[in-house]
Amino acid sequence: MNSKLSVITSSCAALSMISYLFNKKMLAGVIITGEMNPDIQSLEAQLNHSNIPFCYTSEEDKMISALVSWQAIAGVIFYCRSKISLPVINTPEKGTINIHASPLPAYRGPQPVYWQIRNGEKQTMLTAHMAVEEYDAGDIVAQQTVPVSEYDTHHSLTGKLYSYIPDLMEKVINQLEKHKQFITQPQAEAPYFYARNITDEDLKINWKTITASELINQVRAGNPQCGGSILTLGSNQGQAQLLQASYSDLPVHNIPPGTIICVSSDKGLVVALKDQAVRLDIIANADGVYDGFRFACLFRLSSAMSFS
């Protein structure tokens, strides 16, 4: 099939998509939109180096003109920081698809990776769906399953998702080659978790109610983009960032949640929760990045003290 697709993006994150289509000789061009920043500058440089046509604009008319001049049969929106208008979406003959990092309709919204890790999901999906007026609501074109490790952080899972882009796009391209159009199915109407933007409150640890698995997931979901979770040391010592936590087999014996039960070089900094103990592995503040034991020593944390 000689038809080509155009990518609409705001980031170098789309390079895996661009490279796949370029190598398949199916890339018409790239529309870059959003406020100029080092990420976009780097993307422009790499496109120039590969002699890939691109248009940097936020103007609807210029986007439409580029798509028409490139004769793009379809558009692909990926990692785009601004909403693309319906006239642009509808310009290509076959329409435009959007790539979303969740098994839609679950985790619609701007932060699907964070909330899937935080909720302890064991696998996710890349979903290609038709772009429509409402975010993440269009009919599904194709999906690709992606495993989620218990050790994945926000960035590691994001990188893993990028690596599966060629697998997803292979399914999309096969549809166009076989059927000359996208074969779609409506999203399920069942209730779903909305992946809203992350607030400072989301990063705080509620020591009284959180379980060990919930804390570990909360921390890795925010690592590194949000600095993990917020660790409040007390009114005199301020806050720190908890970047990694893990399970501890030390008994809690009805100790109040949030209480430090051990500070030692071999067992680290261990805190009781309502179901079991956790070790605070990596902590950072303005002075540096420490393991739990060294952090406790430097800031004079000891057994029986409590986090607030």
Folded structure, characterized:
The protein is α/β, with parallel strands linked by helices. It folds into 2 domains: 4-179, Rossmann fold (3-Layer(aba) Sandwich), CATH 3.40.50.12230; 200-298, Formyl transferase, C-terminal domain (Methionyl-tRNA Fmet Formyltransferase, Chain A, domain 2), CATH 3.10.25.10. It has helices spanning 15-23, 38-49, 60-70, 86-89, 112-118, 154-163, 165-179, 200-203, 212-221, 292-298, and strands spanning 4-9, 27-32, 54-56, 72-77, 96-100, 123-130, 140-147, 229-234, 238-248, 260-264, 268-272, 277-285, 288-291. The strands form 2 sheets. It has a 7-stranded mixed beta sheet with strand order 3-2-1-4-5-6-7, with helices on both faces. Strands 8, 9, 10, 11, 12 and 13 form a 6-stranded antiparallel beta sheet that branches. Helix 5 packs antiparallel against helix 9. It is elongated. It comes from Oceanospirillum sediminis.
Question: What is the gist of this entry?
Answer:
This protein has 10 helices and 13 strands. The protein has 308 residues and is of the alpha/beta class.
